[in-house]
Design goal:
- There is one protein chain.
- With 99 residues, the protein is α+β, with helices and mostly antiparallel strands.
- Helices cover 28% and strands 18% of the residues.
- It has a 3-stranded antiparallel beta sheet.
- The protein starts with 6 loop residues before the first helix and ends with a strand.
C-alpha cells in the first residue's frame, strides 16, 4: 500500500531551482542585492529573491566573493545607485533561508 501524498508534494514543493540551466529542487530562498541596478522597477527594495539548490547557492556565494575582491581592488565599497555598503558577503547576499 502506498502512502498518501502530502499537500506539499501535490503542490510540487519544493519548487525547481532558479539557477541557470538547473533542474534540481530548490533548498533555500536567497535574497541578493542588485548591485548598481537596484532601482530596477521589478526589484523589491533593491533586492532579488531567488530559490536555489545547494550547488547553485555555492556558485552565487562564490561569485559574490569574487565581485567583492574585485571591488576592493578598485577601492569601490558601495552600490552606485543606493550607496549601500559592499564590504562583506552579507552586503550582497543579504539573506539565505531554508525552504
Amino acid at each position: 500500500m502506498t502512502q498518501p501524498a502530502t499537500v506539499l508534494e501535490l503542490l510540487d514543493f519544493p519548487p525547481g531551482c532558479d539557477g541557470d540551466n538547473c533542474c534540481e529542487r530548490a533548498r533555500v530562498k536567497c535574497t541578493i542585492h542588485l548591485v548598481d541596478d537596484c532601482d530596477h522597477p521589478e526589484a523589491v527594495s533593491g533586492d532579488e529573491v531567488v530559490l536555489l539548490c545547494q550547488p547553485c547557492l555555492a556558485r552565487v556565494l562564490g561569485q559574490a566573493q569574487k565581485f567583492l575582491r574585485h571591488t576592493r581592488k578598485w577601492r569601490r565599497q558601495h552600490c552606485r545607485v543606493c550607496f549601500s555598503p559592499m564590504v562583506i558577503l552579507s552586503d550582497i547576499v543579504r539573506e539565505v533561508e531554508p525552504l
